[in-house]
Structure formats: structure tokens, C-alpha cells
Write a structure and sequence with these properties.
The chain is an alpha/beta fold and about 250 residues long. It has 2 domains: about 160 residues, TPP-binding domain (Rossmann fold, 3-Layer(aba) Sandwich); about 80 residues, 2-Layer Sandwich (SIR2/SIRT2 'Small Domain'). The protein is about 35% helix and about 15% strand. It has a 6-stranded parallel beta sheet with strand order 3-2-1-7-8-9, sandwiched between helices. A 3-stranded antiparallel beta sheet has the order 5-4-6. Bound molecules: adenosine-5-diphosphoribose.
């Protein structure tokens, strides 16, 4: 570990120890070490798959075509992933009363699987399917995806994954609760977020405006690094979070 990395991890740990209300904000980068590629960048999902599958109009025009790509990415691929050291470290910090909440852009359910409880899912969750006609929700396991498209058992309408497609609004409750949570934070820790997706990207900015100190963990500088970040820890989520919880003595 380089000296600078060590210094920044120590500084961040001090801020965390003294925080009154620590909130984490996580993006695709926290799940990279679980084997889920991020969306953007060289190996990103959107360089390999057509984003059209996640456009609402295309989904309803060609549901089988869209569902085939969705099934491949979000159920076959994501389905194999399990929580990594970073997800587990956050769950551990919550259990020990150090972390108050996680606001996540991720839809992969890995925070829940790691044991975190207070989670605000800004973009929804892939494990749940929703009927846009009657609002009924199902766990994907109870419906199965062998036959596409999956249909609502009540009204036979096509089921959609309960996450945000391109052009869709953020569900009101997730929106209000996430921004309310960011208002409470005096320390905010950003893990694996590029800061390129609006309105999610506004959440850390709002926290900063309210006076929160911003810690950022990312192997590469993001949109936040030179604007709102106070301590930039340049490294991988799992490796850095492991060091932090060691220093917090909660391993
Ligand atoms: N640890 C921490 N961060 C990492 C790691 C890692 N091991 N590997 C990559 N990253 C960083 C990248 O450097 C990048 O800054 O994670 C970030 C991922 O960026 P994006 O792929 O843009 O993901 P995110 O910020 O979560 O935005 C994705 O876009 O398509 C939408 O709705 C979708 O929620 C999703 C959002």
C-alpha cells in the first residue's frame, strides 16, 4: 500500500469514528469485485449490450426481445454474484451502530444479501417484478423466467423488472427518502459511483451543501473527486473497506 493511500484511509477512519450520522452512497463500482461489471468504461455493460432493451417504449413494443437481454444481464449474469468484502464491511458497520444508512443506485440486492438493513434503493431492485397495470409485485423466483415474457397472474399483463428503465422517473418514495437521508448525514462515503447519472448524482452534492464531509473510494477519479470530495481514497472498494473496518476494530 502506498503512503498516500494509507494516510487517506487513516484520515477517513477518523472522520468515520467521529461522525454523528454516517451515510454510504454506493454505485456499480462496489459490485465489481463480486463479478458484476460496471455500466460505463472499457468493460462496461453498455459497451457490450444495447441500452434499447431498457427503453420503456421498446420494452412494450418488443417485450420478448427486450426480456432476452434483460434476462441475460440481470438474472443469469447478476444472479451468480454474491456480496463482496465491501458490502459485508458496510453491513458490519451498520450492525455496530457506525453506519446509519445506505443509499444505493444498484439494483443487484447485494447489500441486503450482505445483511444491511437500512437501504434506500434509488433505482429499484431486480429481484422484484412489477405489473404496470395492477401494481402487483412478485419475487422473480416465484414467477421464473423460462417462459418470456413473464406475465401477471392477476391481469395477464407483461411484468417488468422493478427497476428504473431509461426515461422513467425515480419512484417518489425512493426519491424523497434518499434526499431526506442525505440531509441528515454529517459524513458521506461514496463507493464506486461515477456521478454521471442524474438525478442520483445530485444526492452527494446536496449532502455536501448541507455541510457533510465527503469520503470517496474509487480506483479512478470521478465527477465528484475534484468538486466535492474531501478525502479521495484511490483504490478498490473491497480492499479499502477491509482496511477501514480493521482500523475501526470491528473485523
Ligand atoms: N471499487 C470501487 N469503484 C470501482 C471499482 C471497484 N473495484 N471498479 C470500478 N469502480 C468505479 C468506476 O471507476 C466508476 O467510477 O465505479 C464507477 C462505476 O460507474 P458507473 O458504471 O457509471 O456506475 P454508477 O455510477 O453506479 O452509475 C450507474 O447508470 O445506467 C445507469 O441506472 C444505472 O444505476 C446505474 C447507473
Amino acid at each position: 500500500m502506498t503512503n498516500l493511500l494509507e494516510i487517506n484511509i487513516s484520515k477517513a477512519t477518523e472522520l468515520i469514528k467521529n461522525a454523528k450520522h454516517l451515510t454510504a452512497f454506493t454505485g456499480a463500482g462496489i459490485s465489481v469485485e463480486s463479478g458484476i461489471p460496471s455500466y460505463r468504461g472499457k468493460d462496461g455493460l453498455w459497451t457490450r449490450y444495447d441500452t434499447k432493451a431498457l427503453e420503456l417504449s421498446h420494452f412494450y413494443e418488443k417485450p420478448i426481445e427486450s426480456w432476452k437481454i434483460i434476462r441475460k444481464i440481470f438474472y443469469e449474469y447478476f444472479g451468480k454474484a454474491s456480496p463482496n468484502l465491501a458490502h459485508k464491511a458496510l453491513a458490519n458497520m451498520e450492525k455496530n451502530g457506525i453506519l446509519k444508512a445506505i443509499i444505493t443506485q444498484n439494483i443487484d440486492n447485494l447489500h441486503q444479501e450482505a445483511g444491511s438493513k437500512n437501504i434506500f434503493e434509488f433505482h429499484g431492485n431486480s429481484k422484484i417484478l412489477i405489473c404496470r397495470k395492477c401494481g402487483e409485485k412478485y419475487h422473480v423466483k416465484d414467477i421464473g423466467l423460462d417462459l418470456l415474457p413473464p406475465k401477471c397472474r392477476k391481469c395477464n399483463e407483461i411484468l417488468k423488472p422493478n427497476f428504473i428503465f431509461f426515461g422513467e422517473n425515480i419512484p417518489k418514495e425512493a426519491y424523497l427518502k434518499s434526499f431526506a437521508e442525505s440531509d441528515k448525514a454529517d459524513v458521506f462515503i461514496l463507493i464506486g459511483v461515477s456521478g454521471l447519472v442524474v438525478p442520483a448524482s445530485l444526492i452527494p452534492k446536496k449532502a455536501k451543501q448541507k455541510g457533510a464531509k465527503i469520503i470517496e473510494i474509487n480506483p479512478k477519479p470521478s465527477n465528484y473527486t475534484y468538486s466535492i470530495t474531501d478525502i479521495f481514497i484511490q483504490g478498490k472498494a473491497g480492499e479499502v473497506m477491509t482496511q477501514i473496518i480493521k482500523k475501526l476494530n470491528i473485523v
